[in-house]
Fold these 2 entries.
Entry 1:
Amino acid sequence: VIKIRDLIKTYGEGTAEVQVLKGVDIDVGRHEIVALCGPSGSGKSTLLNIIGCLDKPSSGTYLLEGEDVANYDRGAQANVRLRKLGFVFQSFHLLSDQTAIENVMLPLQYAGVPVKERQGRAAEALARVELQDRMDHRPNQLSGGQKQRVAIARSLVTEPSLLLADEPTGALDSRTGKSVLQLLEQLHEERGLTVVMVTHDVEVAAWAHRRIALLDGKISA
Amino acid sequence: VIKIRDLIKTYGEGTAEVQVLKGVDIDVGRHEIVALCGPSGSGKSTLLNIIGCLDKPSSGTYLLEGEDVANYDRGAQANVRLRKLGFVFQSFHLLSDQTAIENVMLPLQYAGVPVKERQGRAAEALARVELQDRMDHRPNQLSGGQKQRVAIARSLVTEPSLLLADEPTGALDSRTGKSVLQLLEQLHEERGLTVVMVTHDVEVAAWAHRRIALLDGKISA
Ligand SMILES: Nc1ncnc2c1ncn2[C@@H]1O[C@H](COP(=O)(O)OP(=O)(O)OP(=O)(O)O)[C@@H](O)[C@H]1O
Ligand SMILES: Nc1ncnc2c1ncn2[C@@H]1O[C@H](COP(=O)(O)OP(=O)(O)OP(=O)(O)O)[C@@H](O)[C@H]1O
Ligand SMILES: [Mg+2]
Ligand SMILES: [Mg+2]
């Protein structure tokens, strides 16, 4: 599903240049659940954003289900994301002027799903993360963990085959975090969902099938 | 230091009314390190915001170092925060158009500290959270855990006697999180810092002197 070779990502220029990813190789197979771990600032979000076609590498190759996406333009990247991916951002990126259910309906709208079906699917996605009582709240009327769960619901509502999640349980208490993992487990069994998740949580990393450690921009395990 | 009785916080009206805090009593003594724990949505951030004079209760009393702050107006609240508190927000609230060091200098500017001293103290605060190499980066050039550490540095730069922190290690890996706790431990020993921190992390809660559990808007332990 994911094949990455010699990935390099550099920010800035001249004396301000920072090489964040220093030649990364990654393989993720269909239906795998992979945890990406590493210290703060090691490059995990940067790597996940490139995998999620939200950013481009400075150099290197990236094949997503055999498609050579590393050098796609913005329009093509958006197209890949809509067709194939769900993404949970480290800082959620919800629209502040829309309710929880409106935020979750948005990807379905981009996919051309009719409004009645959008509403039903979004409501169901929110119920699965225990937010049925918060559907009409806007982000500033939600707790940190509730916002995170809206972001999770939004990432799954289009039924993607690949979920990319940046610290998806970071704002959740232990019980709520476990129930999110159970949801992903269930989708994995029912639909063969492939998951790459960044996590600091040792228990979440242990739950995954495999762990990849990133240290100072390089894979160390 | 903190004396709270019968605290109630309600949002919304009529059928949309949500009673988030349902009569909370809390005492925090000088130099105590208290962890506030509870499920997602239980009211922890709401309670911490009231303690931090960022919000007002719907009813109940709150004495901060003997000062009756529950019904202060916005100007008086801002004054209390500047004089007494450091606050680490769950979503950091950094200024996106300012660098890390400028963000950390800001509270000192409000406190009337001269610019050379502001720069020195802000640089030192950032060094203590291991961000000496990221001082001139703006928030969108920082990782999640780096932003969190900037927020921590900013909360401590005015040398407050009371630190209120909403999930201050939530975005940090285990080692970086421990070094933040060591910093707080050190400030506690050197200056008698009092700390109330919301946390989902069992190890952070264990490190505190005492734990308060919030369940559905009420203290349960
Ligand atoms: N402005 C608001 N209007 C209506 N309800 C609100 C508002 N702000 C917060 N709430 C509700 O208050 C409850 C408590 O929110 P709070 O942010 O205090 O929870 P929390 O314990 O910090 O949760 P988390 O661990 O997820 O951060 C939540 O159920 C939330 O939906
Ligand atoms: N636009 C940018 N310009 C310069 N440096 C950047 C930029 N974006 C990120 N960085 C740097 O790249 C490094 C990696 O960032 P990244 O967000 O990938 O880390 P991370 O592993 O996700 O960390 P965390 O666990 O704290 O979220 C950091 O040191 C950060 O300062
Ligand atoms: Mg990150
Ligand atoms: Mg909270």
Entry 2:
Amino acid sequence: LINLSGIHKSYPMGSVTVHALKDVNLAVNKGDFLVVSGPSGSGKSTLMNIIGLLDTPDSGSYHLDGRNVGDLSDDERSRVRNRTIGFIFQNFNLLPRTSALRNVILPLSYRSMKDSERLERAQLALEKVGLARRMNHLPSQLSGGEQQRVAVARALASNPSVVLADEPTGNLDTKTGQEIVELLVRLSQEGQTVIMVTHDPRLLGYADRIVGMLDGEISEEPQTGDR
Amino acid sequence: LINLSGIHKSYPMGSVTVHALKDVNLAVNKGDFLVVSGPSGSGKSTLMNIIGLLDTPDSGSYHLDGRNVGDLSDDERSRVRNRTIGFIFQNFNLLPRTSALRNVILPLSYRSMKDSERLERAQLALEKVGLARRMNHLPSQLSGGEQQRVAVARALASNPSVVLADEPTGNLDTKTGQEIVELLVRLSQEGQTVIMVTHDPRLLGYADRIVGMLDGEISEEPQTGDR
Ligand SMILES: Nc1ncnc2c1ncn2[C@@H]1O[C@H](COP(=O)(O)OP(=O)(O)OP(=O)(O)O)[C@@H](O)[C@H]1O
Ligand SMILES: Nc1ncnc2c1ncn2[C@@H]1O[C@H](COP(=O)(O)OP(=O)(O)OP(=O)(O)O)[C@@H](O)[C@H]1O
Ligand SMILES: [Mg+2]
Ligand SMILES: [Mg+2]
């Protein structure tokens, strides 16, 4: 489903260049639950942004469902992204002046469905992450972990075929974090493809596969065996 | 050093009121390393904001170094805060249009010292958190964990007598996170008072004392014994 080949990404900073991704190759099958792990600054979010069609590599190719993403126009990329991908951002990226509920409804506005269905789906998604009683709060009226859960709900409400979760539990206590990851596991069991970046070693056990990153390179691809 | 008594904090939200803190009592001695733990939404950041003089309780009293903080004017509170407290925010709160280095220098501008000394302290603080090669990056040019570490460096550069760390390792891998917490432990060994909110059970062992929060209340105060 996802095929990255020879991916490079650099940021020239005056006299120094930061090589965020160096010759990255990665193949992900439909329904996989892949965990990406690695030190701070090793390139995980950069990788996720490329997979999520939010950023383009300097070189190399990215095939999504057989199509070479590099061939798409900006409009086509946006459309594929909105239809296919649900992104849980490391820094949440919530709209500050609108409620949790409206933040979750927003990506659904790209899909054709009744307003009442959008509302219902958004409410259900927020209930699933334990925020039934926080729907009308603005992000500034939510705790850090509640904001993170709004970001999770927003990514899941559109039922995307690919879920990209960048550190989805960094601000959550153990129990709440586990509930979120178990949500993601269920999605992959139902056929959605999930890629989760995490620093929490306790979450590695949920993965079908674990990929390590170090200094911009994929450093290992051990199998975790059956779940 | 820090004495909270009968602290209440609520947020009226139309027909519903969120009771974020209910009758909180807490005494912290100089040089303590206190860890505050608890589920998402239990009131930890609200508590930290009150201790950090960023917010005021609805009722109850807060004595800091013997002075009743409620008696201070806004200007006096700001001055006490800038002189005494270093705050590591859960959401970092970095200035987006200025470099990591300038973000760390900023709180030092409240202290009287030469510009060259401010620069030197800021550089040292950034080196201590492993960001020597990221000093000129803007926050948007940093990874999540790097932004978190700039927030840590900024709080520590002014050598404050009270360090309030709200989830300082949520975006860090195990090794980098441990380095940050060991930094905080050293500060407390040198006489600074440290209060750290964390969801990571592996960090509880660093504490002199652990306080649990649940639904706005302090729910336990077990001693962890000697370090
Ligand atoms: N726009 C940019 N300009 C310059 N350097 C950048 C930019 N974005 C990222 N970087 C650098 O690229 C490296 C990889 O960043 P990335 O965000 O992918 O790391 P990460 O693995 O997600 O880290 P973390 O675990 O801390 O979130 C970092 O060292 C960062 O400083
Ligand atoms: N300005 C506000 N208006 C309304 N409710 C608020 C406001 N700020 C916080 N709350 C609510 O108060 C409760 C406590 O918030 P707080 O940020 O202290 O939690 P926390 O323990 O730090 O959680 P986390 O671990 O998720 O960061 C949360 O349920 C939150 O929704
Ligand atoms: Mg990242
Ligand atoms: Mg908090």
